Amino acid sequence: MEINETISELLQASTDGTITTAQVTKAGLHRSVLQKLVDCGELYRYGRGLYVKSSAWEDDFYLLQRKYERGIYSHDTALYLLGYSDRTPAKYTMTFPKGYNTPSLKQENITVKRVVPKNYEFGIIEIQSPSGNPIRVYDLERTLCDILRGSGSDIQIVGEAMKRYAASKTKDIHKLMQYAEQLRVKPKVLHYMEVLL
């Protein structure tokens, strides 16, 4: 099969407009074909080993997570994605396990949070990005605990999110308290809940 045919098939099979160096290598092609496609304007390089069709609608939430697969959207960004904040984040916040270090993270327009591995896994859910692609984000209960735990979150955003949560029919106070216990913010969560419930 011709190189062009193989590349065409890989690009057509891509539902999200991306292609990786690993896919090209697995198909038996040399990765230099990707650079040729970049040179002719058909693709652009989004990050190490990740290329995007120039004609594809760019979904930053999705592409950033493809680039940094261990990153989970959290804090103010998670509130926005979960519909609990109307403020579009100027900088996305992602949480990584402690010890995960990629030098290129410093060049991105993201706020990096790190947690111990035992606190990294719980509360991860998959939702659709505003453009309809699958992304991983911490659930609402985890996000509320995270924003109460750290500093740097706007007190208005926190207060509004807690109010909306307290009024929500889908709130899970038991889960919120479990998370609060594990993340050591139970007194803060109890304070908000006593005022709002």
From TrEMBL:
<dbReference type="Pfam" id="PF13338">
    <property type="entry name" value="AbiEi_4"/>
</dbReference>
<feature type="domain" description="AbiEi antitoxin N-terminal">
    <location>
        <begin position="11"/>
        <end position="52"/>
    </location>
</feature>
<dbReference type="InterPro" id="IPR025159">
    <property type="entry name" value="AbiEi_N"/>
</dbReference>
<protein>
    <submittedName>
        <fullName>Abortive phage infection protein</fullName>
    </submittedName>
</protein>
